[in-house]
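We treat protein structure as text, and this decision shapes the records that our systems exchange. Because each token names a local backbone shape, the row as a whole describes the fold. An entry from our holdings is shown next, in its original layout:
>
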Amino acid sequence: MQPIPDRTFQFAIRIVKLYQHLEESSGVARTIGKQLLRSGTSIGANVQEGQAGQSKADFISKNYIALKEARETLYWLKLLAATEIIPEIRLSPISQEAEEITRILGAIIVKAKGTIK
């Protein structure tokens, strides 16, 4: 299994490419794309910050922020599909990856909280 910092970086690359596609559109697609870009790239940035956390609490906090950003990213992906801006079938792989990242981050947080004494 790929380490979560690498996985979230690869995910961010996919988000950037999706954003570039949305940026070619106008109006709503572009606006949603900007939101998606912010949340989707923030996941990996917060995971990276957590890796260098000053304490276990800092590690948990940064990963929790990454989890929130992953959930927000899922929201924007679902909205793009529901409004048919991008066909759901095209978004399915990146949505699945966002869901997996969400589950992994949740597990990391639970495990880290269990080690605090």
Remarks:
- Residues 4-114 form a domain with the de novo design (two linked rop proteins) fold (CATH 1.20.1440.60).
